[in-house]
Amino acid sequence: xxxxxxxxxxxxDFASDQEVRWCPGCGDYAILKAIQKVLAxxxxxxxxxxxxxxxxxxxxxxxxxxxxxxxxxxGRAPAVATGTKLANPELxxxxxxxxxxxxxxxxxxxxxxxxxxxxxxxxxxxNEIYGLTKGQVSPxxxxxxxxxxxxxxxxxxxxxxxxxxxxxxxxxVARSVDINQAHLVDVLKQAHANAGTSFVEIFQNCIVFxxxxxxxxTDKAVASENQLLVEHGRPLLFGAExxxxxxxxxxxxxxxVVRPGTNGITEADVLVHDETNRTLATMLAALEPPDxxxxxxxxxxxxAPTFDRQVLAQVEPESEGRGLADLLYGGRTWKVxxxx
Amino acid sequence: MAEDTAVKTREQTGRAQVIRSTQCTVEVVSDSGEGAQxxxxxxxxxxxxxxxxxxxxxxxxxxxxxxxxxxxxxxGNRIRIGERVVTNWGDRTNVCIAFNxxxxxxxxxxxxxxxxxxxxxxxxxxxxxxxxxxxxWTAAMEELGGAGYRIIEVPMEQECLTVxxxxxxxxxxxxxxILCWMFDRDMDLTREQIAHAFRKKAAEITERNHxxxxxxxxxxxxxxxxxxxxRPGLSAENTLVMNGNQAxxxxxxxxxxxxxxxxxxxxxxxxxxxLGEIFYKFGGIVHQAEDEIAAVGVAIGASYSxxxxxxxxxxxxxxxxxxFLGLSVxxxxxxxxxxxxxxxxxxxxxxxxxxxxxxxxxFGQPGDAPHVVMAPATIEECFHAMITAxxxxxxxxxxxxxxxxxxxxxxxxxxxxxxxDPAWQGxxxxxxxxxxxxxxxxxxxxxxxxxxxxxxxxxxMHTLTGLxxxxxxxxxxxxxxNQKSSEMRSRKMAVLQSTLRPPxxxxxxxxxxxxxxxxxxxxxxxxxxDRARAEGVSVSSLHLRFLSPMEPGLKAIFSRFKKVxxxxxxxxxxxxxxxITEENRRRGQLAWLLRAQTLVDVDCxxxxxxxxxRPGAIHDVIRSNVSKGGAA
Lengths: 340, 632
Ligand code: SF4
What we know:
The complex is a heterodimer of chains A (340) and B (632). Chain A has 340 residues and is of the alpha/beta class. Chain A has a domain at 3-213 and 305-313: Rossmann fold (3-Layer(aba) Sandwich). Chain A has helices at residues 28-42, 77-87, 99-105, 107-116, 161-167, 181-193, 215-218, 220-226, 278-285, 307-313, 324-329; strands at 49-53, 68-71, 92-98, 121-126, 172-177, 198-203, 227-229, 237-238, 244-249, 254-258, 294-301. In chain A, the strands form 2 sheets. In chain A, strands 2-1-3-4-6-5-11-7 form an 8-stranded mixed beta sheet, with helices on both faces. In chain A, helix 3 (99-105) packs across helix 4 and helix 5 packs antiparallel against helix 9. The longest helix of chain A has 15 residues, at 28-42. Chain A is globular and about 80 Å long. Mean pLDDT of chain A is 93; it is low at 331-340. Chain B has 19 helices and 24 strands. Chain B has 4 domains: 8-237, Pyruvate-ferredoxin oxidoreductase, PFOR, domain III (Pyruvate-ferredoxin Oxidoreductase, domain 3); 240-425, Thiamin diphosphate (ThDP)-binding fold, Pyr/PP domains (Rossmann fold, 3-Layer(aba) Sandwich), CATH 3.40.50.970; 430-499, no CATH class; 505-628, 3-Layer(aba) Sandwich (Rossmann fold), CATH 3.40.50. Chain B has 632 residues and is α/β, with parallel strands linked by helices. At the A-B interface, strand 1, strand 2, helix 2, helix 4 and helix 11 of A face helix 6, helix 8, helix 10, helix 11 and strand 18 of B. Strand 2 (68-71) of chain A pairs parallel with strand 18 (463-465) of chain B, so a sheet runs across the interface. Residues 22-23, 26, 28, 57, 127, 131, 206-209 of chain A line the site of iron/sulfur cluster.
């Protein structure tokens, strides 16, 4: 595209005229703002972007975009998006989903989109609760969550979305937080730039039904201490003073938090982030406070041929002059030898 | 050669007696894996290519790996051939060639064998080293012997071993040789057909199969004294021979479809196998999704962005797809769904025919979801239905369900080559810039029709939704909007209905009894009507291709008959059953619809035997209904 020819688009050009109906204070607003900024910065023609969603608070997202959008049915957006992308690979296809939509009712479709590596940006708003249906536990809710359907506390173990995505073969897995606009925009741009399924889990606060569920690493007071912002090729250091790091403990094959400069540990002992290392990414994805920081950023990126391109490469666009008539009447015709 | 239809004469030519008949039904049965299917298919294809009318039906065992020599394991083909067009599988078989006596017994017990049938059976079991097998043989022959069949023992194993080491892999072609002699088949055509059937295998396999074919032919010439002459009375030129699933696949290509999204399910899957072989040459994609729901979701997604997409399924899959079907109706995204019906409910009878999905196809989507339901009646119509379905789906921005069944799916029949029309392929979707302010559902007040906006089209940015919405695709928060948009979607069905012609009555335009059918039963119903009319019974029939919206003029047609009844392959109660009354009787699904639609007291006769209806059975029903009902 020739940038100079296009009128410079602003984030507001990507906002539709529809009234946004999320609760005041919902983390979704920040994500909407970030995506509108990403598209404006990238100068993606509006008619070429498609936002496909399922059901839930997050899935209202397409209404608020001045692009194409499709608010489908619960859990099935990855299937619709797969068809949309296969039909027209020139489109920029985004899937907007949530923890209930993407991991509960639609878990199967998410898994298969990821393992196929369809060229989609799948953005999962994780608020660890069902918001639209008023506060039931979700597949990412912590054990013990009190909700109308688990009045004595949930006894199910939560799914870790990023770990699951890595486990089923996703080639791009990243995480960010609703309230860190700069980080969010940066991660979403990287997701957009990646060819193949880009899976982004965003920790999103549901102020009404699950307020502060991520406070242990998102509160201003603890954010810098409890967030590890990973970057490819940079040491895995965190803390306001970047005084702590992650080291591989060879005796347990797990990560441990160390302080360089103490106990004979140097910065050289701290692991350097390698986003092409799935094992490391899987270990990072599993960390959580209070013992560990929450790892954010691009945990894993190792591009591979996309499903849509590979499928379309197997299709002959023109029938090479071999029409259906040839096929129907060609080698399978026969002569009648006198019996008629 | 059912006595009531086949005209047959006997004459002696040389040693062999020749039975000349207008039609004849043949079965080839074996344990599964012994190739009876291939023998039957080849016999059917050769007969079609010679200019006989043909209808074949697969005989499918209940299990994937049934134990050998068990009645439940009977696998093979029924091939009914005629001088003229054959439209159904007939009643009972006239000739049966069996690779063991147990599978023959299975057919006997299913009442599938004509009283005077000629049965050819492998006799190695009579002298088998296993005492139990010998005992089974003796018991079976006693049971069969009581029935008056003409039983001919054939030393298949012994003969085949002169050509192959493993006779199990050769008996089918030997049996084909016997049938070729009995029915005087064109041997060059047969050799060609064998070569085609084994084209993907090594050349020596074809070679060996040709030898076995000759061997069977020579053995029959030496040892048999009866031949059957069913003269080819049709032009075999410009004819295609295929089953309904293949016809649907070719129809999809002819219709310019571009994506088949599916999930494997019997008996629908082979549509995608056929497409897998050819679709890519036409720019088409076969997408095997992770489940039935995703299959329809992918099709909807593809259609949304401008490709012509369809999905193929059977009952359990149709059930799973329901919510998406509602979305296709609500968001007005063109979609074609092929439902190859099998027995139900639940897993039901996966390989067997039934017509029990009709009401589910019509009303399965919760909420008001007006859409189109069509049912091809023949294998040829399976081809054309795809073209019609595509056109309707796109013109009306709607869902079209095409209902076939296991009988059409696996039955093979010759039919005239369609003259391909490039117009069937439709035109590329309109992606010209959309004028400012034009809403995505710019419903024409009178028809409910509107242009659809395809992603990538400048100026058309909007969000489609499964929520109730207004013409701008804005979520409907005002009550009048839902009323209005429901009206617009419903209106399209009335507009489509206004373009349909009243169905043709088969037989006289009025009379004592009108039999109404839909789908694959057409041939059997019309054959039964012919038989009854030949006896002077005042009966006609009518076959519906559109179940939603229904073809016009039904009430007027019904009013000219004293009695109207449906004949269907789904379940209905009968009045002589315990507790069943006029009030609580559950009727056939089409009967249910017709009663609601016409307020005519439509009766029904239905069976769910896991097999196509036999014309003889329908004939009996007609006779009893005319004598006790309308004509009385
Ligand atoms: S319920 Fe929660 S997630 Fe939903 S809009 Fe309100 S705050 Fe946001």
